Amino acid sequence: MNDLLETTGLACDLTTGLCGSDEPDTRRVTITYVTDPICSACWAMEPAWRTVQHRYGDLLDVRHVYGGLLPGWDGFADPANGIHGHEHVAEHWREMAEHTGQATAVSVWDTDPIPSSFPPSMVLVAARDVAPELAETALRKLREELFVHGRNIARPDVWRDALAAAGWTWPRSRHASGTAAPATSSSPTCSSHGRCGPRPSRRSSSRPTATASRSAARRASLASSA
Questions:
Q1: How far, CA to CA in Å, does 213 sit from each of 205, 208, 217, 219, 220?
Q2: Confidence band (pLDDT; 50, 70, 90) for 186?
Q3: Which CATH number fits domain 27-168: 3.100.10.10, 3.40.50.150, 3.30.70.100, 3.40.30.10?
Q4: Domain limits of the chain?
Q5: Average pLDDT of the residues of the chain
Q6: Which letter does DSSP use for residue 193 in this model?
């Protein structure tokens, strides 16, 4: 270690494995994380990924990109993993769990098969674009619903639960309370149809109403006839 310091000016911490000068490195690194909420390999690497974030999170900027792993089952196949239909996915997930040691619930493929990964991916894109500070937590909560609790995250009620747990603010039902709960300025809102986005700002219109226009025209006509 002393030889390395003398020859290169770098010092290495044998505990963390980090090498560098004695001065702290404040340079940030951007990571583009290409993933999918139903990717079992991504779930298997979750412990390692969370460790990276825990140790180096203050130096990282992460941008999530969702690849759309499963557009739908019509014509879809993954021969390399023995998948030709949703009934084959559970076995692939069991093998992944056995090889990696990451606990994985596979019951969803027997009880409520996921038809497509596009709906949860679109919801996560909304989180990334509208409230980037919630992107990582939103992805984690959705994966917990799927891989821990065995729920179909393509269903709106399931991803609504997950995103609420991640910190999104949801409007209350007008039928239940008569008013809608306001969302925070940093949180997007989503409808029950799965459309997500920022709350629209209310702007007063300077355009005259139809009634006002007719009244103005009538006054002008009377004035000209007089």
A1: 14, 6, 6, 10, 11
A2: very low
A3: 3.40.30.10
A4: 27-168
A5: 76
A6: T
Contact between 152 and 112 under an 8 Å Cβ cutoff? The reply is yes
Q: How confident is the model at residue 127 (pLDDT cuts 50, 70, 90)?
A: confident
The top-scoring range by mean pLDDT among 67-76, 97-106, 159-168, 202-211 is: 97-106
Distance of CA 197 to the CA centre of its chain: 13
B/e letters for 183-207, b = 16+ CB within 10 Å, e = fewer, are: beeebbbbeeebebeebeeeeeeee
- Are residues 187 and 131 in contact, defined by beta-carbon separation less than 8 angstroms? yes
- The strand pairing partners of 64, in sequence order, are 33
**Mean pLDDT throughout 24-38?**
86
Contact between 123 and 129 (Cβ < 8 Å): no
